[in-house]
Write a structure and sequence with these properties.
Helices cover 31% and strands 27% of the residues. With 418 residues, the chain is of the alpha/beta class. The chain has three domains: 166 residues, 3-Layer(bba) Sandwich (FAD/NAD(P)-binding domain), CATH 3.50.50; 83 residues, no CATH class; 94 residues, Polyamine Oxidase, Chain A, domain 2 (Alpha-Beta Complex), CATH 3.90.660. The strands form six sheets. The chain has a seven-stranded mixed β-sheet with strand order 8-7-18-19-20-17-21. Strand 7 and strand 8 form a beta hairpin.
């Protein structure tokens, strides 16, 4: 008789794991609270234009195994573009691969040159002069009221390329190779441009593998018993001795383990907006895939990216990501963006198509993270649930694949050593 495995959450990780487990002849059921898989890839609409919810892209060769899997196993077709990342500092557009001596003179003056060798989690004033430190602090308000909570969004990102980041993180290592031109980076995205197009093929593949998917289901706990209910809270399945792998956000577990602490998370919230902008191709703008921003006049702008899949012979399209606590006047905000980007791109005109509030993000303190993780770990240990990820932030696709690869190795070990 096949061993039954319940996977909670039809995220990318959950779907990858379900596919793999079904290949190993397990009887797999996915429980998903929404009515579709991979809902994190859903598009947003701005004035009849469909867009990804923020910048999306599979980095290559960083995620080449994931790309290969989606091509060969799921049957997806991709477009490939050169990944040219830029930094926007003040109104200067700088190549992400620039060493200090290659940066504009006025930007070079912002760095403390004698300390530019290695990044080992130093403070801002170790690398930057006071004027630049103040700029970073102001820009950090888009993430949090306390800079310590969001330091990692600025360091080492805005350091010159010749500063080595001493880290074991695979993403940091990949970026260091890119910045020092030891490999050529690309982005892959579905032919439609929209990542939600992955859902249809993946769902078909899971069904072909006889994976059962129960949509609109919620996980519940009573003492040490685990059960699932549908959206009307009608119980349809009880879990007792079966293996359960939780692939959702740890926030869900925290809501069951300590609801009051989950409510405290709202203190660290920011609203995420997407702005779509059109620029006539009579103007010339530099080639870039994404641009990380550090500009006092629009400190709430996190990133600017090119929307290649909307472009035509007449227009460029760019997508601007905003993170902001509260908006007092939408018109003033959009006018400030337009005014500043005209200067940044050195063009005479652009058209703001529209703006869309698409989600809420959180940047809690390290102590909150530490406490929340411990609570969740203690909770699932009592419930006998497997949880592979205690990171409360959404994982990028490279991190998801890395987590999946580690899980596969562990499963092989378990199989060989019952």
């Amino acid at each position: 008789m096949k061993r039954k495995i319940s996977i909670v959450g039809a995220s990318l990780y959950g779907c990858l794991l379900a596919y793999y487990m079904s290949k190993k002849k397990y009887n797999v059921t996915i429980y998903e609270k929404k009515n579709e898989i991979l809902s994190g890839f859903n598009h947003i609409s701005i004035k009849n234009h469909k867009l990804n919810n923020g910048f999306h892209g599979f980095e290559y060769p960083r995620t080449k195994e994931l790309i290969f899997f989606l091509k060969k196993q799921v049957g997806l077709n991709f477009k490939k573009i050169l990944n040219v990342r830029k930094l926007l500092i003040n109104q200067e557009i700088i190549d992400y691969t620039s060493k200090l001596v290659e940066m504009p003179k006025n930007i070079q003056k912002l760095y403390v040159k004698k300390n530019l060798k290695f990044y080992k989690n130093q403070n801002l004033d170790f690398f930057f002069k006071k004027k630049f430190v103040n700029k970073i602090i102001k820009n950090s308000k888009r993430y949090s009221d306390n800079f310590i909570n969001c330091k990692h969004f600025f360091l080492p990102w805005f350091l010159p390329a010749d500063i080595k980041h001493t880290t074991k993180d695979e993403g940091d290592k990949f970026r260091y190779l890119v910045r020092n031109k030891k490999l050529k980076p690309y982005y892959y995205y579905p032919k439609t441009g929209l990542f939600e197009s992955i859902k249809k093929n993946f769902l078909k593949k899971l069904k072909n593998q006889n994976v059962k998917i129960r949509f609109n289901s919620k996980i519940g706990f009573y003492k040490n018993q685990i059960y699932f209910t549908d959206k009307n809270d009608k119980q349809f399945y009880k879990e007792s001795n079966d293996r359960i792998i939780f692939c959702g956000s740890p926030i869900i577990l925290l809501g069951h383990a300590k609801p009051k602490m989950l409510a405290d998370l709202n203190k660290f919230s920011r609203n995420f907006y997407n702005v779509l902008i059109r620029i006539s191709k009579k103007n010339k703008i530099p080639y870039f895939s994404e641009m990380l921003c550090l500009n006092d006049n629009i400190f709430f702008v996190n990133r600017i990216s090119r929307v290649f899949y909307l472009e035509n012979n007449k227009y460029y399209y760019i997508q601007v990501e905003l993170m902001i606590k509260n908006i007092e006047s939408m018109n003033i905000l959009l006018n400030n963006i337009k005014k500043e980007l005209l200067k940044v791109f050195k063009i005479k005109n652009l058209k703001i198509i529209g703006i869309k509030h698409s989600r809420v993000t959180y940047t809690p303190t390290k102590s909150w993270y530490s406490k929340a993780s411990k609570i969740c770990k203690d909770f699932v240990k009592k419930k006998n649930i497997e949880v592979d990820n205690y990171v409360f932030d959404p994982l990028n696709t490279a991190k998801v694949w890395d987590l999946f690869e580690r899980k596969k190795k562990l499963e092989k070990f378990k199989t060989n050593n019952p």
